[in-house]
Amino acid sequence: MNALPPQPLSPLDGRYRPAIAPLTEYLSEAGLNRARVEVEVEWILHLTDNKLFGTSPLPRETKDKLRLAYLDFGQDAIDELAETERTTRHDVKAVEYFVRARLSKLGLDHLAELTHFALTSEDVNSASYALTVKRAVKDAWLPAYRGVIEKLRHMAIDLADAPMLSRTHGQPATPTTMGKELGVFVWRLERVLNRIEQTEYFAKFSGATGTWSAHLAAEPQVAWPNISREFIEGSLRLDFNPLTTQIEPHDWQADLYDDVKHAGAILHNLAQDVWTYISLGFFAQIPVAGATGSSTMPHKINPIKFENAEANFEISGGLFATLAQTLVSSRLQRDLTDSTTQRNIGVAFGHSLLALTNLSDGLDQISLARDVLLEDLDANWEVLAEAIQTVIRAEVVAGRSSISDPYALLKELTRGNRIGAAELAEFVSGLEIGDEAKKRLAALTPATYTGLAESLVRAKLQK
């Protein structure tokens, strides 16, 4: 058998590439290296701006040309770094040589020793990962997540008045509205959104063991922690961690990944519920021209978008859980387990973004079958037993009824029995309760027994 030509091993880089392409700008190996170049270049500029070791701030034009090392980072740069790393066997050292070469091309050889000055690889990596993850979340993942929330918000408001039979434990239960049920997901997702939007993206910049030892050896009169803080918070617009070992301990990453995993778990729940509503006929699927539902059954429209979303939320959730658990632990001052682990950040976000894309597409391809909901309600008048026994209780307390056990009375009538409007009307007419209460119950139907469902949606979700 002939060997296949080179193929992507991960479906994210093959079948699903279009859906996750925005993340590769940041969370690929090339995106990481571009960020590393950015950190190294900006550190040189920060040192010269502070006139350290007799240097002077570079002219604006020279700064702009040096910044092209990362602003114009393309395939040639990717190839050059890969070739250099084959020799160095060290990714960050390859970046250092790459930056030194750019300095030389600009006639800035006198600044060459400021490249990677007093840094350990983790100074560069912590800042680079913070930059790439922050940008990936803000520019690619969050827009997709917010898009799903807003789509759900509009659906919830549009369907706020659509009465629907609930199913607790899979059994007919007190009616609600479809809009209210979708609104619950919006409310849950926005709470997690608020946490993700407040994520702190920490970096350290304090040398081999977090003590600024080499910095002080080179210039003991400089307030190096302040220089580092100004660089991280000012030049890179990240959050500064002043107390670390050799590595930034990744706690912020664990917080973020736990939150993204939580968001995915909520959306996984949504995908399952919508799938179930489709199976009940509550949602009709809108046929896509040319699409095939089944290879053998021509009539089928399968809810594959929701099934794919489920699977990818599960994969991403598992990866995020591993990342959050693994990254917060490092033996003594440093081990290298985080290096290979962090290279899977993009994989975790890739499956999450793919799931969001599938879910969003799936929501676009369904429409509510209100007639089916009403038929389902009309077939389950026994769900009004809750309302009747609750009204009787209130009447007993008010002195307008002497019924001894309202719950048992309704249980005997309805448990395991299917009763219709006529049977329930006859039962209510014979109750020992006040006329006003009897009138309210006589007017009640499963479709109108939805409480505050509609107003809750409009009060809590409308902007």
Short account of what is shown:
The chain is mainly alpha-helical and 463 residues long. The protein has 19 helices and 6 strands. Strand 1 (163-168) and strand 2 form a beta hairpin.
Question: Features of this protein?
Answer:
Fumarase C, Chain B, domain 1; two-stranded antiparallel ribbon; 463 residues; 3 domains; Ribonucleotide Reductase Protein R1, domain 1; two-stranded parallel sheet; Fumarase C, Chain A, domain 2
Question: What do you see in this structure?
Answer:
The structure is a single chain. Helix 2 packs across helix 5 (91-105) and helix 4 packs across helix 5 (91-105). The protein has three domains: 11-120, Fumarase/aspartase (N-terminal domain) (Fumarase C, Chain B, domain 1); 122-161 and 178-369, Fumarase/aspartase (Central domain) (Fumarase C, Chain A, domain 2), CATH 1.20.200.10; 381-445, Ribonucleotide Reductase Protein R1, domain 1 (Orthogonal Bundle). The model has no long low-confidence stretch (mean pLDDT 94). It is built from 19 helices and six strands. It has 463 residues and is mainly α. The strands form three sheets. The chain has a two-stranded antiparallel ribbon. The chain has a two-stranded parallel sheet with strand order 3-4. A two-stranded antiparallel ribbon has the order 5-6. The protein starts with 16 loop residues before the first helix and ends with a helix.
